[in-house]
Every structure is written in C-alpha cells, then in structure tokens.
C-alpha cells in the first residue's frame, strides 16, 4: 500500500467522537496532504481528456439528489441544522431599513447578502453542503456546473475546508468570476456554450472521477443552507409582513419559504423573476416544473430554464404570489440601490426590489417588507451600460434631434435654451449633408441629462415652441 493510501486510510478511520486536540491536529495534516494530492491527481486526469468528445449516456445525466420522480422537500429541522453548522463560517449580514421606505410607502428592509465574502448568498448552501459530506466524499471532492456565484462560493469554502472542488463553467461565464474561482485553488473547466451543456459535462466527470455533483439550486443541503437567511431576517426584523425573494432555480425561495412559514405562517412570500425567464411562474401555472426558454436578461443569475424539483416541491404550496419584472425596472432598481443605498448589486440581486419599483405589489403599502439583495457580482463594464440604460428608463437621460438655423448664434441660442431649463449637454453632434431642409439649416443631435422625466417633458414643450422640427427618443414615464 502506498503512502498516499496510508494517509487516506488513517484519515477515514479516525474516530469522529474523539475529542482530542492531538487528533484534530493530525487530521489537519492528513486533510492538507490529501487535499493537495487529490487536486493534483484531478488536474492531471482532466488535462488528459477531450471533454467535447466524451460519450455521454442517459445514466451519466442522473443526479440522485435531484430526482424528478422522487423530489425531496426540505423541512424546518434541515434549515435549523444548517444554521448551527455554518455558524462562524458564513457572515450574518445586516438587514437595515431602506432610505427608500418613504418613497415607496412601505417600510422596506434590505437583507444585504451581497456582503458575503464571495459576493452572494450562495455561500450559505455551499458551506453546508460541503460540511455534510461523508469523510470519504470530502477526500474525493465535489464538482458543480455554474456560471458564477455558486461556483465562487463552492471554490472558496472548498479551499477553507480542504475539500477538492472542480467547477465546469460555460464559455459565457464572466472572466472575473472564472479568475476568482481559480484564485481559490479550484480546478476550473471552461466548456459548453451555456449552463445546460456545462452541467452535462459536469455530471459526466462526476461519474468518471468519483466526485459528488452539487446542484447549485436543488441539492437538499443547498436549499437548507439558503434557508438560514430567513432565520436571520426574522430575528433582525420583528413583525415582518412580507419577504420578496429574487427567484431563478428557486433554491433561495424554497429555503426562505419553508423557514419563514414555519416560524410565522402569516408572513407573505413573494417570488420575483425576470419576465425573460419566468420559469417558477410558469411552473406554478402548470402545476409542475416547466421548461422555460431563457432570453437575454440583466438578471442573468436568475435565467434558469427549469426550476429545481426539490425546490419546487418545497415551495410551491407555500408561496403566496409570483410576479414578473420588466428589464427596465431591474436597471432602475440597480441605479436606485447605488444612488440611495450605496449598494452595488447585480441584476439578479436587485430583482426583488425591481418588483416594488415597477408597482407590482401595491398590497404591501404600509407593510414591513424585507427584500434580499442576494448578489453583488456585476462586471464593471456591464454596470456602466446598465446605469446609462437606467437613466434613460428613468427619464433622466434623453436624446433629441432639433433642426436649428445654421447661422452665427444659432447653436448658442439652442444651448442657452437647454441650460435655462436645467439640462446638461452630455454629447452633441451636427448633421448637414442628409438634411432635406434649406441649405441654411443644421440638425443638432444631443444627449441631455435632466433631473427627472417631468423636467424632460417641460424641456420638450419649450423646444417645440421654439423650433419647428423636434424629435425626442422615448424616455421615462415609468
């Protein structure tokens, strides 16, 4: 028997009931050796594979923890056990009263789980799932398919717990998230054009390399871990009336719903999804998990085409309402959170608040409402684009085309009219060649920043009273 196998056998055979510091110290050494050796072995074996050419059968795609024929609803005891086990390893994030309470007519509290170390609530489920593995599974390691937050959470806590982690990320995964996963010491495989293809490869590799596959939104331990957020909410916000939960695969929704309804059946649970991939909404209508083709959305973390079978079984009888949010309101929600709460939140994390901004929940007026801000991993380049689109949707950034006199003083007069109405010119351009008016006219194209959509309408009226040809792009009014 080789030395590596000796170490493994010693570790697996260490009694779990012995309370000895010397044994614990030895276990740390065993785990470190096994962790490094196993990662090196996995890295070498994966490097030999041409993953695209792997023969994948139906048996390879079976996930025994997520069986559509035998779903496993989680119970409150699962969540309370998870809360005990992850204590000290996951942040208890603040749940503070929002500056926007007066603006919305509700007493809003934001549960700021974007402040977790990896930037999302996914750490709760990831850590509990890893802690719940058998000793042998901890040695062998785990694998997952994810484009971002689940992958980062699993990689980070895998490193802390010395459990080997392999993640299969689709080619569309943001570079920042891929880099983060690698920095946590995990093995990252970039394969598949979308998350479904990545999952197929991950399940195949799990069988080949004896790795435990952990579904990021449907493994029972993941759901139990996510539910710990609700325990914190109820302790932090007494007499909460409603919780508006951003929903994708429905793992967070399931955990929060089971915990909150057990502790107080009168708490209203509302699911908020992007209208471009409302898979839980459609599943509720059809009475079973239903495939929904995802479209491009700002809430990319919620774009899960089929909700988890365990998640659906846990939540569907307890959720009070489902709403679908328009893209422009997700953008506005991100802008509002940045401006008024000083919180950088990704589209998926802002979806619950977007439902309030869109006015989809008038029944919550005067109520105490908690909204999880469950993720803050948004690329800086995307954030810039989102904020610009939000300013347009909010009626604060407008685009105009005005035909003015092409004579000395013509542009000056136009600019004075703009400034006298409190608008700021962000960009301006002239067009002469394609203009069909007289030769002494010029079309001015301008991008202007105004205080709000009402000011934009006032400016439009002033322009139309002064100039004959005025065109304004659609703006605000939401």
From TrEMBL:
Transmembrane segments: none
Signal sequence, start to end: none
BP GO annotations: isoleucine biosynthetic process; L-serine catabolic process; L-threonine catabolic process
Cofactor: pyridoxal 5'-phosphate
Keywords: Lyase, Pyridoxal phosphate
Keyword Repeat: no
Location of the Tryptophan synthase beta chain-like PALP domain: 87-375
GO MF annotation list: L-serine ammonia-lyase activity; threonine deaminase activity
Organism superkingdom: Eukaryota
Keyword Cell division among record annotations: no
InterPro entries registered for this protein in UniProt: ACT_ThrD-II-like (IPR044561), Ser/Thr_Dehydratase (IPR050147), TrpB-like_PALP (IPR001926), TrpB-like_PALP_sf (IPR036052)
Similarity-based family: Belongs to the serine/threonine dehydratase family.
PANTHER family registered for this protein in UniProt: ACT DOMAIN-CONTAINING PROTEIN (PTHR48078:SF19), THREONINE DEHYDRATASE, MITOCHONDRIAL-RELATED (PTHR48078)
Protein name, per record: L-serine deaminase
